[in-house]
Amino acid sequence: MSIVTNTNNFVQLTGNITKDVESITTKNGTQLSKFTIAINKTVINGNGETVSKPSYVDVCAWGDVGIATKDLKKGDRVQLQGDLVGNEKSTGANGKTYYNTYVNAETILNITPKSANESETANN
Fold first, then answer.
1. Would you say 14 and 78 are in contact if contact means Cβ atoms under 8 Å apart?
2. Could you give the CA distance from residue 25 to residue 13 in angstroms, rounded to a whole number?
3. Structure pTM?
4. SS3 state of residue 68
5. Cα angle, residue 71 at apex, residues 65 and 77 outer, rounded to 5°
6. pLDDT tens digits, one per residue of 30-66
7. Which residues of the chain have pLDDT under 70?
8. Is 103:60 a contact under the CB 8 Å cutoff?
9. Domains of the chain (ranges plus CATH)?
10. DSSP structure class, residue 1
């Protein structure tokens, strides 16, 4: 496990992968894996009811960290550490500027409870 050295830009998140990991190899041979995690936050709505509100975070994993994601799949619970990266994008149609922020993961741990993995295997 690598250690995050940039403490001015550090995030640690725990969430569930929303769809299977997309992996590619770049032209120079570097592995890149991309996925999104859902992080649930419990809030009290206007009616006083406790509800779960998800936030979605895009994740990129490069090199050895990207290679290590090969066994991750939709539904797996992961804990990751890394830094935030902001990209600016502009849509050509309306000229509006949109900002996309993602986590550049430096460590990723699969913390899916063992029974959840066994149940899915049994159902297949």
1. yes
2. 25
3. 0.79
4. helix
5. 85
6. 999 999 999 999 999 999 999 999 999 999 999 999 9
7. 1-7, 88, 90, 92, 116-124
8. yes
9. 11-113 (2.40.50.140)
10. -
